[in-house]
Predict the structure.
Amino acid sequence: MLNAAKRKAKEAVTNKASEVINNKANDAVNTAVNGNIIPLYYTSGNPMGEWNPETRQYTQIGKVGNEYKRAHVYTFQSDGSVVVDDGRRIGEIQPDGTMNTAQTQGIKYNPQTGEVTRNGEWFGKIEDSGMYLFNDKMGWAKTAMDKQIQAFILFNLIATNEMLTEFKQKYDEKVKFNKEMRQQQIANAKADEAASRLGGSAGAVKLRKGGSIVGEIRSNNEVWINGSNRGKIESNGNIWVGGSVAGQILSNGDIRKGGSIVGKVQGGKVWLGGSIVGEIRQNGDVVKGGSVIGRAEGMKDAIKVAVVYFFGFYNL
């Protein structure tokens, strides 16, 4: 019994000591560090690591359970080698600025423009405001620090080739979508100008519901319902109801109403909240709840048609 009591007492002391050590380590991570140590953070506010410009060492911080702890230490040597704390050479910064690790290769930071490229293609930027993968802010340094080191941390230590490829695919899709939207806006503007010269209703999109024509979207952007002018949907995306702007079509297809995003139209699919509620087909059919409820004859812009039928701006 005496030995058992001693063991329990020893375990209690050991556990208490471990708790104190862990708390001190945690406090050190979450407290601003004195001297020249520069903390880095993710956009979430969680710690990313610490940079020591004097020793040119970057200390990675990771989450273990519910605690943030210092993990690997990377030393940026004068010959361009990047060495981890166990002595392994895990990366390099070549004389021309090209940065490589096993995770990612061909990364280069341009100190004149702040741009970061991968094998010559633009992939992001390092600015005073933070570190960006394409246009998405991933993190920032608490105070000014070497931007090439920031680029290496984000693009060579955190990112992987697979991650960069996935982000680029999404970025290219967004660029393509924005280009198509811009081309559509230009086409609509030209149609608006031509319609104005012809008196407004020429070339209007006829809106049917239940087999009857109940309105139209005119070439000058005016929305007419049951014979009266209810507003207009401008080429820049502004949605007018009566004499004021009540919403907006954003460049990514999101629909804003009363200051909030209420849904989106993408690829002909109509979303309200987080669910698909309908579809505008290429032939102009308006589908809701699996049934065709109307048709936009002579449809030129599926998003405008969706705005009229689905989002309650004109009570069609």
In short: The longest helix spans residues 161-198. The two ends are 84 Å apart (CA to CA). Confidence is low (pLDDT under 50) at residues 1-6, 12-34. DSSP finds four helices and 24 strands in the chain.
